[in-house]
Every structure is written in structure tokens, then in C-alpha cells.
Amino acid sequence: MSNHRSRDKIAPFYLVNNMKITFKYDLEKEYTNLWCGLGSLNRPDELPKLAQEIVDLGIELHDKEKIMKFFNDKMEAKNIDIKQKLRELKSGWLSIAGEAENRLKKLFNTDIDLGDVTAYLTVSRRCGYNPKERLFFVSVNRDEPNSTIIHEILHFYTHNLYEQKFLDAGLSYEDFNDYKEALTFILNTDFHDLLGGEIDKGYEKQKDLRIWLENKWPSCKNIGELTKMAMEKLSH
Q1: Does pTM top 0.70 for this prediction?
Q2: 114 within 8 A of 160, measured Cβ to Cβ
Q3: Structural contact between residues 66 and 142, judged by C-beta atoms closer than 8 angstroms
Q4: Is 120 helix (H, G, I), strand (E, B) or coil?
Q5: Angstrom distance (rounded) from CA 152 to CA 135
Q6: pLDDT digits (tens, 9 = 90+) for 36-92
Q7: Contact, 86 vs 104, CB < 8 A?
Q8: 27-38 vs 64-77: helix axis angle to the nearest 10?
Q9: What DSSP string runs through 161-225?
């Protein structure tokens, strides 16, 4: 887009065990992330803050050109050095990446290879993800971006290993969504030392299931078994 200032799209990758993450900024992906938030099952009645701001400005949510300009202006107003921010994200993640992936593989009892994963920087506080395209978003506003990264990678593992099992058992995608969001309690119990003191609070929608899972966890410590118990609970 000629009326937008060119921004950084160069992002070196690194390899941690089997998982390769590339950190990028791409203005078009801001539009993608906006629509990830609009399609959320977790807060379906709540318009994302920036989406509300866009609507208040009289911009149609399908007007990609104007929305991209809106996000470009937002990023410029923050006066963020995107190349430096990407370097900081990479450096911060590298400091815990090996340990984080090893813990995830142990908890899920898997050696699954997630392959190439892309983390896009976003000016939005609400960060979406797409497990099929293996991409997720990290907000420039987060004090502890590693919390977002582990949260989304946890989702990727859960999708890869259990989404189809839920559907094959006759449960709905919404049941699976509730489970994978409730499961993020595990960031507080098993990854707290990697998150700089940040607490993953989850969503109100899955609060009861989250508490139930967390109460089961000390005597279980096996995500496969925990998943079976959750599927049984959700089937009734």
C-alpha cells in the first residue's frame, strides 16, 4: 500500500528442539488479528477495544484499506522501533524457549513437531491465533510477552492432540474451545517461573471449568488423563 510507510518484515528464526518461531511485523496481519478478536467464542458479546474505536470513527469493519491505515497510525503514534522490538521479543523468548518446550512436551507426553510457527507483533491488546496456519499475535503493550507466547503454543499442542478427539466423541467445537482455554491454568501452576510473575487469568466463560481442572491437576499431572476426565464431564 503506497500511502503507508514501509515497515520491517525481516525477522530471523531460531530452532528450539523441533519448534521454529519467526517473529515478524506485517501491517496486513493487523487486519487479520482484528477479525480473530471479532470471531472470539470467549467474549462473543464484547467488541474489542480497537474495533470499537474503529466503529466510533465511522470506519466499516470490512474496509481493509482504512483499517490498515488506522493501525499504521496507531503504531506510528507509539513511536516504536519495530526492529528493536522484534529483537527484544526474540531475545526474551530465547532465554526460556528450550525449557518451555521441554515442559510442554513432558506434560503432553508427546514429541510432536509443531514445525514453523510465526509470531506477529500487533498494536492491539487482544491477540488472536490460527493453529492451522501456525501463527499467533503478541501485543507491543505486554510487559511479559513470553506469557502470550507460551499461552498460544499451549493452544497449538492442545489443538494438535485433542481437538479431533473431542469432535470424534460427539462433543462440539465450543466444548473443545472451553477446555483448551480452561487448560491455561497450567501456565500458573507449571510455568510461573518463566512468566516474570504474570498470572494467566483466563476468561469468565470458562471460570468454573478452569477451577475444576486446576483442582484435579495435583493428583493427575497428566494432560492426557485430565483431558479424558474433562471430556467425560463435558459430555453430561
Answers
A1: yes
A2: yes
A3: no
A4: strand
A5: 9
A6: 888 777 876 667 888 889 999 999 999 999 999 999 999 999 898 999 999 999 999
A7: no
A8: 110
A9: IIIHHHHHTT--HHHHHHHHHHGGGHHHHHSGGGTTT------GGGHHHHHHHHHHGGGT--HHH
Residue with cell 503478541: 138
Residue 60 one-letter amino acid: E
How does DSSP classify residue 160? I
How does 174-194 read in b/e, with b if 16+ C-beta sit within 10 Å? ebbbbbbbbbbbbbeeebeeb
How far is Cα 105 from Cα 68, in angstroms, rounded to an integer? Answer: 38
Q: What's 13's DSSP letter?
A: E
Question: What residue ranges do the domains of the chain occupy?
Answer: 13-234
**CA–CA separation, 173 and 167 (whole Å):** 7
pLDDT tens track for 14-38:
334 567 899 999 999 999 999 988 8
**All 3 cell numbers of residue 149?**
507466547
Task: Mention every residue, 6+ apart, whose C-beta is less than 8 A from residue 68.
Answer: 1, 4, 27, 28, 30, 31
pLDDT digits (tens, 9 = 90+) for 197-216: 889 999 999 999 999 999 99
Alpha carbon 12 to its chain's center: 20
- C-alpha cell of 218? 495435583
